Amino acid sequence: MIELNRLYNADYLDGIKDIDDKSVDLIVTDPPYLFDNGNWYKSDILGENSVYTNSELYDNFGMMKTEMGRFGEDDIATLYDAVIPKMKKVNMFFFCCEEQVPIYGMEARKRGLHYNILVWEKPLSIINKNRFSMNTEYVVRVYDFGTGLNRLNNNEVYNKVLHDSRVTDKIHPTQKPVSIFRKFISLCTQPGDIVLDPFVGSGTAAEACVYEKRKFIGFEKDPKIYEDANKRLRKLTGPFRLFGNIGV
Ligand SMILES: C[S@@+](CC[C@H](N)C(=O)[O-])C[C@H]1O[C@@H](n2cnc3c(N)ncnc32)[C@H](O)[C@@H]1O
Known about the structure:
Layout: E1 6-8, H1 12-15, E2 26-29, H2 39-42, H3 73-83, E3 91-96, H4 101-110, E4 114-121, E5 136-143, E6 161-162, H5 178-188, E7 194-197, H6 204-212, E8 215-219, H7 223-234
Parallel strand pairs: 1-8, 2-3, 2-7, 4-6, 7-8
Antiparallel strand pairs: 3-5, 4-5
Helix pairs in contact: 3-4, 5-6
The structure holds S-adenosylmethionine (SAM).
């Protein structure tokens, strides 16, 4: 049986077998993107000083050494088939790149589910006037009919365009702002509900759950990244250290 409020150093497809069916309230996750080549990405990352140095799964530029670098149709279908039975009602948020948006959407429709596309607009950085700027990322929300959002006082949380700032002190090259995770969690769950992140990275979803007083389960395949995520959670102090046994 899975323990709540801890991360597991495991492939999500193995770890998820220990989660009871119909037990998870929300999935907020950031699976690998669909990279055709890494050139644009490399310009953004740290090279030999990368946080991925010594990682088993990534080279120094954050490119996956395995075929997981292309997280395409088959991977997304496998992901849906693995996680959907675990949910009480389907309610899932997937960070993704532009090329993956139609795949997440079409795989949702095939299963009779609804979806929304949210856009995370980041500031313009390097401008290449041959193409539109790559200052957006996407989040596809997949949900069952009748899965409403909570009524919160802050109207900004209902905006499909997210303007949250990038993370500046990253411990993971694709680390996302905790504020976005907190928004989705507070819109879709109640305190004490269970949130699953099958692709933990630096532990952003878990940290958001601690702030929002939700329970979490997370899987991270890479041992070094898993350790870094646990260190991050152990640093949470004061009112945010809600659980005695965060991490391992
Ligand atoms: C895009 S990153 C997540 C970043 C995270 N949202 C954050 O803010 O730090 C995806 C993570 O999933 C992990 N991963 C890839 N395939 C996996 C699998 N099959 N099972 C578990 N983790 C996996 C990678 O090692 C990587 O750290």
